[in-house]
Design goal:
The chain contains 15 helices and 19 strands. The radius of gyration is 23 Å and the shape is globular. α12 crosses α15. The protein has 543 residues and is an alpha/beta fold. β15 and β16 form a beta hairpin. The strands form 4 sheets. The protein has a 6-stranded antiparallel barrel, surrounded by 4 helices.
Amino acid sequence: MKKVLNNDEAKVVQLVASGDLRLSANQTCWAAQDAMEMALAEAVAAEGFDLVRAHPYKEDEGHGFIASQREGIEVFRNVDADAPLIVAEAVWQYSHHVLAGLTTHRGPILTVANWSGQWPGLVGMLNLNGSLTKAGVAYSTLWSEDFTDDFFRTELRRWLKTGKVKQDLSHVRPLEDVTVPPKSAQLGGQLAAELRLQKAIMGVFDEGCMGMFNAIIPDHALHGCGVFKERLSQSSLYYETTQTSEAEAREVYAWLVKKGMKFHFGKDHATDLTEAQVLKQCQMYIAAVRLADDFGCDTIGIQYQQGLKDLLPASDLVEGILNNSDRPPVKSRDGKRVLYKGEPLVHFNEVDECAGLDGLMTCRVHQALGQPVESTLHDIRWGEAYGGDYVWVLLISGAAPPAHFIKGWKGAEGFRQPPMYFPNGGSTLRGISKPGEIVWSRIYVENESLHMDIGRGAVVELPKEETERRWQNTTPQWPIMHAVTYGVSRDQLMAKHQANHIQVAYADDAKSADACLLAKAAFANELGMKVNVCGGRTRKKGW
């Protein structure tokens, strides 16, 4: 594959690769990216085109990624704005590194990812897709295991000829084409009226995590739902953490251990999980709850990456605890009140405000219907067929509540966060999600307004060996959910989904899950969102 751009060559397709902000991640993941680009170049060459990089491999840094917004702007100054462009991703990437250049690119844009769980390239591409949709940039998208399959080759050929890709979106139905029972419509309308009248506060500990432009809801769109941001600083969270006593932290730690959570400790801070890291996380948990109470927040999101990673252990254990109803009690500073007693303090990982609004709505719908109120976002990390189903690997570093796990707190484990991303360590909150019926959803921004895609599915239990294999092919320290999306294939979800994240919540049974979906869809519709119902009620039955 050619490594420099030559605009004089005929039939040239340009390539850019957005990377991480962290040098360690870019260096570690480069080999996978390089292998992907080589396979992609062969596929492009088979169609009579040359694939050329618009930016070189950086010998001094040991990778070939665009690693900052400024670098991306400089790269795009040398890109032919009218020529076809592929954004190739085998890793997690920061969308804002390339977003500025893509907003003024006039030629056809194709985002491409390899179908691999090793590094989160699929996650990165979906984030970029959602960011482009929010920014109003036209693009097409493709993915492949090895770039030789018929679907990929056929659609690549179509894109090279027409600048567009044909995707199957037959699983998507506007809410107005779905029969919503009067009870569900009434509940949705009631919840929407209450939210607009009473209003809610979304506490945002620094906005715009890891380049996720798609995760920021414009204020005017959020205000229309009756929700308003309290813009908080992570420096406040850091300070409050330092002001929380170790004695209080040890009470939280003892509560977790008594509940059955198992921590896997070592001695080396740089590579192992240590008790000191967990105690600091317990202090952060107390601090987050108290700050939320100070500002009257109904939901909060901690950015952590970047900024806090240089000061504190990971926030992920904190986030998962917050999203659970059964969690260590936190008292006000004067000791007179238990804060948010007996309920989750809904947390949205990586300050994904779309997930925050979704989680807030989910909690209210499920509470009204007497269903489990815990929800979380997950990364759409990867997946493979198993036992006649396509089973997704939904994985996230934080926010997953133990109520979702097999055996609850007794099924929860704490491992050190990978040093590549988390220099100060900290415990994960790992578990295997229990089998059951779920509702999945995603709120996203398009044309300056809010939209929601929502569907039904199930969590299935896989053999221990298969779960372990999937963990080892992704990130074994993180909580995992084996999910089946009813009536939505792998490629259909990839073609339509507008985010790296997907929101999931359990219901007691299929009938209850249907009721939750319909009420939540009606709730969103009453708030002014354009709602799409995706897939069916079951694997074979539609709406």
